[in-house]
Amino acid sequence: ILNVEQSPQSLHVQEGDSTNFTCSFPSSNFYALHWYRWETAKSPEALFVMTLNGDEKKKGRISATLNTKEGYSYLYIKGSQPEDSATYLCALGPGAGNMLTFGGGTRLMVKP
Amino acid sequence: KAGVTQTPRYLIKTRGQQVTLSCSPISGHRSVSWYQQTPGQGLQFLFEYFSETQRNKGNFPGRFSGRQFSNSRSEMNVSTLELGDSALYLCASSLKSMDSPLHFGNGTRLTVT
Asked: How confident is the model at residue A2, as a pLDDT?
């Protein structure tokens, strides 16, 4: 059973703050790491899929890095806005198929 | 392009009954996977279908089953419902069966009384 851990569980920041959270996973048998944003009353939305050690992806003010050798990924949000308030999920993908193992998520709340 | 559509949005059933949930993927997507979300367990993988074949199955009892039709639409069935089956069931489609992001539907909220 794969263990995907996310920290912190929740985070309160002020509008304009930059923030980051962590996804940890077993470094052996790594294939792909996904990040999703899940806003209340909406469906999870894909942010990034990363497969290579050292991968860095960026989408607007959000970026992510991947270290497969040590088994972690960071998600960064620059200049947080209230609309960034959501739960951010990471998930580990297997060698084949879409059987993702999700972490428990980090719930971000941005105060105006 | 229409997104992933799940029906119904809400369901209330009684213990012992069975239920069928439906999912229409994004046009052109051949992989459909199902996830269960409960407050205590987070998102857990149920199964994945690709071109009408089940590719993977999660650690759920045999009461949970599914299928995929030739148009890629998928159904999930739960028989002999238990209280613990109350959850949000999410369906996701993707272009490929690995390496590509999942596109989720809005889910079906199942309540078992």
From this structure: 74
